[in-house]
From TrEMBL:
Keywords: Periplasm, Signal, Transport. The lineage of its organism: Bacteria, Pseudomonadati, Pseudomonadota, Alphaproteobacteria, Hyphomicrobiales. GO terms for cellular component: periplasmic space. One of its GO terms (biological process) is polyamine transport. Its main location: periplasm. Required for the activity of the bacterial periplasmic transport system of putrescine. InterPro entries: SBP (IPR006059), Sperm_putr-bd (IPR001188). Belongs to the bacterial solute-binding protein PotD/PotF family. This is Putrescine-binding periplasmic protein. The keyword Transport applies. Residues 1-21 form the signal peptide. It comes from Roseibium aquae. CDD domains: PBP2_PotF (cd13659). It is found in: Periplasm.
Amino acid sequence: MIKGLMTGVAAFALMAGMAHAQDRKVNVYNWSDYIDESILTDFTAETGIDVVYDVFDSNEILETKLLAGGTGYDVVVPTGTFLSRQIQAGVFMPLDKSKLPNLSNMWPDIEERVEKYDPGNAYSINYMWGTTGIGINVEKVKEALGADAPLDTWDIVFDPEQLQKLQGCGVHMLDAPAEMIPAALNYLGLDPNSKDVADIEKAGELLKSVRPYIQKFHSSEYINALANGDICLAVGWSGDILQARDRAAEADNGVTVEYIIPKEGAQMWFDQMAIPADARNKEEAHEFLNYIMRPEVMAKASNYVYYANGNAASKEFLNDDVIGDPAIYPSDETVANLFTVTAYDPRIQRVVTRTWTAVKSGQ
């Protein structure tokens, strides 16, 4: 009887353990259209950890959920400027680096830049980095502005006379004040990282001056709109515009899309993977991050989304049209002309939000 009972208990414990192993999962919240989905299925096949994958399209949406708490997510992907204040708010847990041996693959130069947002790289790993610039339909823009008009400049966005000429063929702008206000400040010759209220208001006035010619503000629609020839200019993220370029080329629809890093400079940004402090599946989250940091995995992600990544060891696995494209991996000279910004404190953030609302409403 006792032996049978013990055998039954052992069997039950084994079955419970197997059930628990089968139930392992990681809940990931990432930007839309931002990973090769085969990475997720390969991870599950290798580890037995199911990936529950949700997407968002703005840092503001992610931050609202994180600050409210109880998101249910185990891995999230904020941009560095937002990450820094979320760290200060206690949103994330420090990474257990003993569980992340693939950290040795990361790129020291990128880690050094990210330390502005995450001192000691204690809370996050870099997933992708890139720039915020201008995407154009080359033929339509030249037709509207003139064949010899310089296109490597923010003038085509922030000069009302020039943008008005592009109104007829369609202009989209990022619905992202943390991107657009620094770009406007830089164009005005002011510090793009300024936290001065008067400076932010000047940027707002500049943006209001071109507001009548902007068809739409959003965070993702411009990819297809550019690729299909529905618009001729978009201020957007480098990888998105390069995806539009390639979709147009694949469709062979007569649309030529080009990505421009303006000569006046552009913002360099970093999207970081981090683990919320209230994550339920912390062990699985670490396994997911360590898997992502494999060189061939990170390269597969970059080859899909056309963004540079912070993994130095991945370079040998990148497609030639990724590693060899200066719009994705800019030259040292171009990088020297890029700027980064830090997070706004709550008081200045209210000014920024109010300014951006006024810009979008045209008031």
